[in-house]
Amino acid sequence: MNDIIAKLEIDWPDAVSDGLSLPCKDCGQEPRFDYRVEDDFWHRHVAGDEARGVICLPCLDARCNGIDLAVALIEIQWTGTRPLHRNPQGTGVKP
After folding, report:
1. Alpha carbons 29 and 26: distance in angstroms, whole number
2. Rounded to an integer, what distance in angstroms lies between the CA atom of residue 92 and that of residue 43?
3. Half-sphere exposure of residue 9, counting CA atoms within 13 Å on the CB side?
4. 73-78 vs 85-86, strand pairing mode
5. List of residues 6+ apart from 78 with CB closer than 8 A
6. 8 Å CB contact between 16 and 77
7. Residue 18 · residue 58 · CB < 8 Å
């Protein structure tokens, strides 16, 4: 049984939402994306006790003034917290 549990833990992909979400510390909104950034970037812009909390991607972008976030971003995934709707012409998606 422990081998099965160990295998599940190893094979579970990083940054996959478990359906639970906490609000962003800065804006109070439920994050729309799960993401990972490089540790040094995170600690440069999210210091101290905040580093254990949730900062949504737009608020992290604001904290770094848009500088180097795209470079530091390792992984990003839509959480599905808000539905996407096709516009009436079906030519695109709007949040």
Report:
1. 8
2. 36
3. 6
4. unpaired
5. 32, 33
6. yes
7. no
